[in-house]
Specification:
By secondary structure, this protein is of the alpha+beta class. Helix content is 59%, strand content 19%.
């Protein structure tokens, strides 16, 4: 078969053929990339929304973790203070103080009133004594008690010889922390 097309024209046709093949392949690749890009947009949006949701959850968890850590520190401090208080609790009840006072009264002394406020460091008592000696003996008996640090009796209470109205303040022994 004889080719009637001149060699130069044949080369031009061959060149144009390959250019067209290359253009078709480039268009196919461009179309494929465009299709991939269009299909990736929903995936990108979904990933971005999930990332922001996880970031929000992470920041909330961090805040809660910090709050829990601060509450844990407060609880630990409270537990330490409570342990110290439990270790140093004075188990003496007010009724035990009153019993100790009444047990130490002698026949010449009559206690008529008690004054104590919850958590106070002292007890106030008042009453009458037949003689100064009875009152002094009562004061000495209270000073011997282990429950009282000291007994304060005003000097004016010892001014009379008989039928003495008195008031005393009994300072309670405080536990050491």
């Amino acid at each position: 078969m004889a080719n009637l097309i001149p060699l130069e024209a044949q080369r031009g046709v061959q060149k144009e053929y390959w250019v067209r093949v290359l253009v078709v392949w480039c268009m196919l690749v461009a179309f494929g990339l465009l299709l991939i890009t269009i299909l990736m947009v929903p995936v990108y949006i979904l990933i971005e929304s999930q990332t922001s949701a996880y970031a929000t959850l992470y920041s909330e968890a961090t805040i809660q973790s910090d709050q829990i850590a601060s509450l844990e520190a407060v609880i630990n401090e409270s537990n330490t203070v409570a342990e110290k208080l439990v270790e140093n609790t004075d188990d003496t009840k007010v009724s035990e103080y009153i019993t100790d006072i009444t047990d130490r009264t002698n026949q010449g002394v009559q206690v008529t009133n008690f004054a104590y406020t919850g958590g106070a460091t002292s007890i106030g008592i008042g009453g009458t004594a037949k003689t100064r000696a009875n009152l002094a003996a009562f004061k000495t008996a209270l000073e011997e008690s282990e429950k009282f640090e000291r007994v304060e009796l005003p000097i004016s209470s010892l001014a009379s010889e008989r039928d003495i109205d008195f008031s005393m303040e009994l300072i309670l022994v405080q536990p050491t922390l």
